[in-house]
Every structure is written in structure tokens, then in C-alpha cells.
Amino acid sequence: MDQLILISLVALGLPLLSFVLVILNQKQLGEHSYLIATPAIAFSATLAGYIAWERLHIPSAPAIQWGFDWLHFGTVPGVGQLIIRQNVFLDNMTAILMVVVTGISLLVHIFSIAYMKRDPRFARYFAFLGLFTFAMLGIVLAGNFLQLYIFWELVGFSSYVLIAHYYEKPAPQNASRKAFIVNRIGDVLLWIGILLLFSEFHTFDFREIFAFINQGLPITFSLLGLSPETTLTIAGLLIFGGAVAKSAQFPLHVWLPDAMEGPTPVSALIHAATMVAAGVYLMARVFPLLTSNAMLIIACTGAFTSFMAATIAITQRDIKKILAYSTISQLGLMMMSIGSGAVAAGVFHLVTHAAFKGLLFLGAGSVIFAMHHAKDAIHDHETNDHDIFNMGGLRHRMPLTAWTYLIATLAITGLPLTAGFMSKDEILSGVMAYGNLQLGIAQAIPWIGFGVTMLTAIYMWRQVFLVFFGKPAIPALHEKIKESPKVMTIPLLVLAALTLWFWYGGNPVNPDDGWFLKKWIATPTQIIPPQTAPRFLPHNYMPVSENATSASMPHQIALEENRTANSSFVELAALVSAVFGFIVGWYFFLFRGRSRDGAQKPSTSLFPLSSFLQKGWYIDPIYNYAVVDTVTFTARMLAWFDRRVLDGAVNLAGRTTVVTARFAGAFDKYVIDGLVTLVGATVQFFGLMARSVQTGRIQTYLTWVVAAVVVILVILRFTMFHS
Amino acid sequence: MNISPVGLPHFLVLSAILLVLGIFTMLTRRNAIAVLMGIELILNAANINFVAFTRYGAINLGGQVIAIFVIVMAASEAAVALAIVLNLYKRQGSVNVREANKLRD
Q1: Quick one: pLDDT at residue A600?
Q2: Cis, bond preceding A39 (omega within 30 deg of 0)
Q3: Of A462, A452, A710, nearest to A574 (Cα)?
Q4: Per-residue buried b or exposed e for A35-67, using 16+ beta carbons within 10 Å of the residue's own CB
Q5: Are the C-beta atoms of A425 and A571 separated by less than 8 Å?
Q6: Cβ of A697 and B98 within 8 Å?
Q7: What is the pLDDT of residue A595?
Q8: A80 to each of A195, A218, A424, how far by Cα in Å?
Q9: What pTM value is reported for the model?
Q10: Residue A679: what pLDDT?
Q11: ipTM
Q12: Which of A453, A238, A191, A443 is nearest to A332 (CA)?
């Protein structure tokens, strides 16, 4: 066993250990539980950092795998020897994501020490943070689909528990249930996809499945009589179904905005930085088997989700809801990028997004924390401390939060010198190349990407200007706002540092030269059969580029070449979109807001579409109407059927039984019992008769004896002697 | 008056009279001892028959032997019966057979 594998197992086990220790000693530990949880995560993060260091400073370190036989099924008919293994799989993507997961988790642990203070379920909260970290590490370390699926469910469960942290209130209850149910839909699709692959290849292992597909699809790989190529597309899309739910893509994105009912640090860790990125990670992992059609559908889904969520984010008033829709939008960008074949760019954005979105959420947590305490100080229980129209001018009161928030905003809107600029630029150039080559509907995708960049800038600057700039909306409240304690601001500073460009590459405007893309993460080679690959090449196309590795499939090389050719145009266009968005945001929410008295006026005047957008494109009401009401109606119908028909039948059967029983009872009572009584009475009658002879008077008996003798003599006289 | 010599019919008539007297005594007297007497009369009526048939009949000495057996048996019967009567007296304070009906129930 490789030493790194052992270290990664320790890093995986520590959060689980913390979970077990804390959950079993909740009462005793109470508010001291962070003394166990935080060092465990810190140690785990250190180990993850060591693994990443060991791997990443070696150019193109090969992936390592270690596993053991987990389940022996013996000889299974039609399969042969069936053994299911547990694998630990460690490549560069795993190493980087381990650092991201444990790093953000550590910062959230630290931040929560202050944020969750005096919470009655402090220990439970820290316990489940540990469980979540364990499960998330399990996902990124999984070497096969089964293991991934197990941890996939486990992150869903810990997310469910943490959304419902304030379970006394109805909203978190509903939100957690909604998250769980919506995620189940995706989980079922994912599981079907996994089983579809397993049914043919009899293994869950990623690399074995890829190797089998690479040898050519067997004709038996067929679902409902479809061709093997179509079946492969379906398998890819089913797996994508799991990612759609977990990464909140349209149409299963509805749970994520509601999940904001959980504590804000949880939103930062689970619902922004790591868990929701699990879907993106999954798609990057299975990218080699995605066919052309699957890629197109994934790219379109991502693009649509991204655009839709960005438009909704513009109209939201809740500081966390804005960030939630922003997360959906950014995840859409990542999906779009993976669907377009720019997997490295998608993963890059995943990592940078984890940093700046984690920072935004923790910053929002800091603001909410300050608002909440200020409200308590002036005994105000009415004001909504999440509403950005109740804030304003906070930068004077909480400068650290404000400036780190500003840095994160620069990153998410994609302005230079930030990591967000680099990753977003990569995505946009990737989808541009895909649009240029794939043609058809795919041509719209890059333009949607630029549109989303602009919308992102608008909603983020709107938020920043309304929260931190301008005039205080409620002056009395503003007086009492205080900067959050150091234990909360230090994670903000760390994340702000991670949002800058120099961690990912030397040149802030040329990400392609940065070490992240050049040395650490590469787009994996696809192994799909050539006839299912995207057909945007002339027949006798020969790659000429030096950049692309010769191992990649031809269409991947063509994409890479087209991308390089367009990259400076894309960079400029992205920058123009971002700056335009900034200007729009500045004009409407700072410049004009200044002339307004306060900023109390909601944004309804801005767009006629506003209420449509504010209600999230009415997707929730549509689901309520189409799904929830249908299910409820069906349930009512079934209940009616149950009550009237089934219960009626049961009652009828019951009544019939009762009547029959009455008859049987009467028969018993009068006929059978009568017979028995009759026998008894007869016996009694004869008994009485016989008894009357038994007088007990010896002389009576003697009289009978004498009489009998006389009778016998008379009989004898007339029978024997007479003859 | 023509008196015929004593023959078998005389004995049989006597025996019959004794039997009837014995039966009557046995069935009508309330005193247990009197009942016993009645039984003795019956037995002796039978004895007379046996002896008479030995004298006039064709059964040789068998009748007399049986008569002796009967006398022995009657003696032992009287002993047993008197013991019973004594116990009866101890139990109910009288020897009235009408009262001795406890076995009825």
C-alpha cells in the first residue's frame, strides 16, 4: 500500500472519528465539542495538504489506487466470479478536492465556533459537520461507483440534517424534506445509471469500466433493445441525473434556495463550496464515457440553469437567497463547461468557486450575525435580518467583512487579478470552441455564458452596494452594528487570500500558462466509441497542435485548438460583460440609490419581469401544482377509494360474517344444544324413573325379589313343564 | 273320618305353609331380628322339603346332606346377620329396617 493512500485513509477517518466522539458525548461536551471537531479537521486538512504537495510537485504523477475485496458473491450465473471491491483512488483531481473540502471545512469549523455560540444543539452541529466532511472525502476518494454512491447518499443525509438544524421552525423542516426528496429523484437516476453499466461490465470500478468501453461496446449492452451507442448515452445521462439533483441544475434546482434555512456556515460549506460541487466532480470523473449527445444535453442544461438562476438572483431580497441562486448559476457554468468538453476548466472553476463562494457565504454569515445582535441590542424583533434592503453602509461598521466580501465579488464577477477571472475565462473559451465546432443549438451557449457573466456582475454589485455602501436603511440598527469577532474574520481573510490569482498560476490574465491547468488538472481523455464522438471534424483530419497530448480523441484536440485560437477574444468579451454589469449595478443601486431616500424601494420598478423572476420563474408553484398537487390529489383519490370501496368491501365481508355467525349461533343454540339437552333430559328422565324404584327399604326389595321369583316360576311352569 | 297315612304331600304342605309364613314375616316385620327369624323359617321350609324328598323320593341321602349344609350355613348366616344388626343398632339406635335406608342416596 502506498504511503499516500495510508495518509488519505487517515485524513478520511479523522472527521468520522470526530463525528463519533461528539455525537456520543453531546451532553457532556456541549459547547466544548469544537475542541474535538476543529483539531480533527485541522489535522485532516494538514494531511490533505501534504498529499496534494507530494503529488502536485511531481509533473504528471500517475493516479494510484488501492483496494480490498469487500463482498464475495461466489459464482453468479451469467457473470462468473463476482467480487465487489472497495477502492481508494487518488489522482490530482482527488488531491486538490481533498484540500478544498478539508480546507473549507476547517474554516467553517473555526467560523462556527463564534457563529453558533449559545446554540442549544452546538454539539450536534459540529458532529454532523464532521460526518459531512467524512462523506465528502469519501466521494472524492472513491475508486468505484458503488462506493461513490454510498458516500453520495451520506452527504445527502448530513445535508438534510444540517438544513433542519433549527427544526423547531416549520420552514427548515420543509426545506430539509424538500432537499431530501428532490435529491432522491436524482439518486435513483444515478443508481439506475450505475446498475446499467454494472449489468454489462460486472464491475463498479471507474477505470475497469472505461477500459471495457474502450475495447468497443458489446452488442449486448442494450437497454430496451436500443443500440449500444444510445444505451451509453442514456447511461451517461442517468448519471448526470444524479448530478442534476446534487448540483442543483434545472429542473431539480428547487431545493437549494430553500436549503438556505440552515445555519449560514453550513450553507457556505455544503450548499456552496463542496457538496453541491459533488455533481460537477462526478461528471468530471465519468466524463470519458460521455457521448456526443450526452455532452450536448449536459451543456444545454448547464447553460439554461446558469441563465435562469442568474436572472432570479437579480430580484431576490434575501442575502442568502441571492447567493443560493448565484451558486446554482455558477454550478450551471461548470456543468456547461464539462458538457462542452472543457473539463479542466470546470474543475478549475469548482475550486475557485469553492473559495470565493465560501467567502461570500461566510461574509453573509458575518453580516447576519452582526444584524442579529444589533436587533437584539435595540429589542427589535420585526426586522428581517436577511433582507438586503434593511442594510446599507455596513462598510463603516464592519470593514473586514466588507473588504473581503468585495474581493470575493471581484472574483465571482470575473475581474482580473482574481482566481474567478481565470476560471471563468477558461470556461467561456471552452464553450466558445464547443459552440464554434458543434454548431446548431450549441452556438448559443457561449453567448449565454457572456450574458450570465453580465448578470452575475449586476446581481453581485447590487448586493454589495445595497449591503455595504450607500446610506443605512435603518439608522437605529446601524448604530449597533459591530464587526464580528476575530474567530469569524480570520477565516474570511484566509479565504480572501485564496481568492487571488497567484495560487493557481503566475500570470493573472493567462490561465493556460498557470500551473493549475498546465500541471495539475488536465481534461481526461474520452474513451467513447468513435461513432458516438462529436462529429465536427473533416474525415481525414490530422491534429497539428503541439499543445494537445496525442492520446486525446481527435475531437478533443480540435476543441483545444479552436479554444486557443479564440482565447484572447473571449477574455476581452468576458471582461466587457463583467464591467458592463458593474456599471449597471453601480448606476441602479448606488448612483440612483443615493438620490433616493434610503433604499427601501424594492426593485419592482427596475424590470417589468420582476415578479416573474422574484418568484424563481414560478418553478416552485408549477411543481406545487404539477407534482405536489397531483400527488396529493392521487393520494386523496386513493384514500377515497380506500374508504369507500375497499373499506366497503371489508365492511361487507365483516357484515356477512356477522350474519353468518348469527345463523350459526342460532343453529348451535337451538339445534345442537337442543339435541344435547334432549339426550340429557332423556337420560335424566329414565334415571328418575329408575331411581324411584330405589327406595332404600330392604323389605320393598325383598318383595320385588319374591314377586320376581313367583313370576319366574309361573313362566317356567308355562314354558318348560307345559311342553 | 278317613285319615290317610302321613305321606309326602303332608310334608310338602307343611313346608309350603312354613315358607309362606317365613316370607310374610320377612316382608312385614319391622324388627330386623324378626326379619331374620322369617329367613330362618324359609330355610327350614326348604330343609323339610329336602328331608321329605330323601324319605319318599329318589334322591337317597343327598337331601339330608344338603339339609345339614343348610343348617350350618343358616348358623353362620345368623352370626353374620346378627353382627350386622348389632352394628345397625349402634348406628341408628334401633333395629327398625324401615329406617335403614341410608344407602338409597
Answers
A1: 46
A2: no
A3: A452
A4: ebbbebbbbbbebbbbbbeebbeeeebeebbbb
A5: yes
A6: yes
A7: 47
A8: 17, 17, 48
A9: 0.76
A10: 94
A11: 0.83
A12: A453
What pLDDT is attached to residue A599?
45
What is the rounded CA–CA span in Å between residue A66 and residue A44?
A: 19
Is A632 exposed, middle or buried, given 0-12, 13-18 or 19+ CB atoms closer than 10 A? exposed
Indicate the DSSP class of residue A288.
G
Q: For A137, what's the count of Cα atoms within 13 Å in the CB-facing half-sphere?
A: 28
Q: How far apart are CA A259 and CA A272, in angstroms?
A: 11
Please compute Rg for chain A using Cα positions: 38
Length of chain A counted residue by residue: 723
pLDDT single digits (tens) A147-162: 999 999 999 999 999 9
Top residue of B27, B39, B97, B99 to mutate, by most chain A CBs within 10 Å, is B27
CA distance A606 to A583: 15
A690 touches chain B (CB under 8 A): no
C-alpha cell at A483: 464587526
The H helix count followed by the E strand count for chain A is 29, 2
Cα B27 → chain centroid = 12
Encode A130-163: b = buried (16+ Cβ within 10 Å), e = exposed.
bbbbbbbbbbbbbbbbbbbbebbbbbbbbbbbbb
| Chain B, nearest residue to A691 by Cα | B104
Coil, helix or strand for A31?
A: helix
β-partners of residue B31 are B96
Residue contact A695–B104, C-beta within 8 A: yes
A692 touches chain B (CB under 8 A): no
Cβ–Cβ below 8 Å for A694 and B28: no
Residue owning grid cell 441602479: A588
Run of H or E including A99: helix A92-115
The three-class DSSP label of residue A473 is coil
Among A692, A700, A702, A705, most B C-beta atoms within 10 A, so best to mutate, is: A702
| Mutation choice for B interface testing from A691, A692, A693, A697 by most B CBs within 10 A | A697
Q: Do the Cβ atoms of A706 and B103 come within 8 Å?
A: no
The minimum CA-CA distance between B24 and chain A, rounded to whole Å, is 10
Alpha helices per DSSP H over A389-515: 399-413, 419-438, 444-468, 475-480, 486-498, 515
Measure the CA–CA gap between A105 and A112, rounded to whole angstroms: 10
Domains and CATH numbers, chain B: 8-104 (1.10.287.3510)
Residues A399-423 have pLDDT tens digits of 888 999 999 999 998 888 888 888 8
- A404 φ, ψ (degrees, to nearest 5): -65, -35
Grid coordinates standing for A320?
442568502
> First-to-last CA distance in chain A?
126
